[in-house]
Amino acid sequence: QVQLVESGGGLVQAGGSLRLSCAASGRSLSSYLMGWYRQAPGKEREFVGAISWSDSSTYYANSVKGRFTISRDNAKNTVYLQMNSLKPEDTAIYYCNAAGPYNSWGQGTQVTVSS
């Protein structure tokens, strides 16, 4: 299986930025789609975006398109979620996901955006 550890969450004012990291270990990620999801209190977990490890194709939810950017660092086996122009409605626990031969989730990191 792939082990995932997120970091980088915190408290930020509306309009600010944060960068989340997801460090992966355990298996080669060449067959994986690495995704970010989030879950706000009282809501279901929702897709934020994803990146294909093999060709770096990226996919985004409409709600974050143009504000969030996903990237990866092969050498560090790490995926990043750069979040700009943050809004209070972006407040949630953010989870990293590895979808491939195995499906793995990280423990989540809290992002709080104050108005």
Instruction: Bin the strand percentage.
Output: over 45%
Count of helix runs:
0
Gyration radius (Cα, Å) is 13 Å
Low-pLDDT segments, ≥5 res: none
Which class best fits the helix and strand makeup? mainly beta
Terminal-residue CA separation: 39 Å
What shape does the CA trace take? globular
Give the ordered list of helices and strands.
Answer: EEEEEEEEEEE
**Mean pLDDT across all amino acids:** 95
Give the fraction of residues assigned to helices: under 10%
Biggest sheet statistics: 7 strands, mixed
Multimer state: single chain
Number of strands: 11
Walk me through the structure.
This protein is mainly β and 115 residues long. It is built from no helices and eleven strands. Strands 2, 4, 5, 6, 9, 10 and 11 form a seven-stranded mixed sheet that branches. A four-stranded antiparallel sheet has the order 1-3-8-7, with no helix packed on it. Strand 5 (46-52) and strand 6 (58-60) form a beta hairpin. The mean pLDDT is 95.
